[in-house]
Amino acid sequence: MAPQGAHFLVLGAGGLGAPALLALLAGGARSLTIVDRDRVDATNLHRQVLYDLGDVGALKSEAARLQLLRRDRQLCVDALTMDLDASALDRLLEAQPAGAIVLECSDSPDLKFMVNDACLRRDLAAVIGGVIRWRGQAQAIARGAACLRCVYEDPPPHAIAEQCAAVGVLGPAAGLFGHLMAHLAFALARARGEIAGALLTFDLLQMRPQELRPRPRAGCPACAGHDPSPTVTPSHPACSSRTIPAPR
Question: How many structural domains does the chain have?
Answer without folding.
Answer: 1
